Amino acid sequence: MPTKIKLPDILANWPWSRAINPNYANCRIESRAWSGKFRVFSPKAQHAFDLCNPSLLASLAYPAVDHARCRVICDLLYVFGVFDDCSDAMDANAVQEWADIIMDALRNPCSPRPIEEPVIGEIIRSFWSNATMVVSATVQNRFIAEFGLYTQAVDLLLTLASGNVEGYMDLRRNNLGAKPAFELLAMDLDIPQVVYDNNALATLRQCAVDMICLANDLYSFNVEQAKGDDHNIITLMIIQEGMTVQGAVDRVSTIHDRLAAQFLAVFHSLPSFGSPAVDNMVRRYVDGLGNWVRANECWSFESWRYFADDGPRVQKGARG
Q1: pLDDT tens for residues 196-213?
Q2: What is the pTM of this model?
Q3: Residue 240 DSSP SS3
Q4: Which GO terms of type biological process are on file (predicted)?
């Protein structure tokens, strides 16, 4: 039975407001038509998946990109959903097989996939073949590297029986899928690698990833405990530290507040990188990171992923 908890308003002072891509409606229709042809899920499971509405998250997280790029993100978040949902029912060997297929398809998007191969190979090949038309070569390489870490983290999470909070967060950062998604914030930007690797930008990325991790675990706790899934930071705090559910929720909120403060401090003190053009691209990129955090919160309440049709009421309660 779900546990009644008081959700905190973790973004009460977050300066990014909700924004949505004007191409959302059309991209959602196109992405659903594209994804539907693969028939990954049964009709009932497909309906449940559609209610999670990955295209909504894509359009909230990338509100300013054009139609072609919005569509790429919609398809990417469908890919994440397929891998996340399907891997829940797999053993570690099967997940590793899918991970190998995924990475091969990313590296060879122009090569036909073997007929006998699991459908994930053709899904990835089709997605990435479209993406490479609007994503620069530099960003493509970074995306593939981060996606490799993501697939391996999904595999490792299946073998994680227990652990401390720090170890869990180390793994969760890669398992979430936010890192490869963040790479596409720069898909139409030519940020030099030395700038991209700057400590300030790396700190902003990690803060944003961690805030999204904590928010997802906070919002998904009741759904996951109902399924017997203990891969959640709240569950770990209860087991490892003997906390109550509400105590763990409040602790997560405190950690999130610290991360938000750190993000904003770094964001407001970014150095110049020696060129107005580069500085402008960096500003757009880090603004995208801040917006992603807000987008994730909005989607969590507006889709059916965690709260079914009760999201608006739950969100109002958190903000009240």
Answers
A1: 999 999 999 999 999 999
A2: 0.94
A3: helix
A4: isoprenoid biosynthetic process
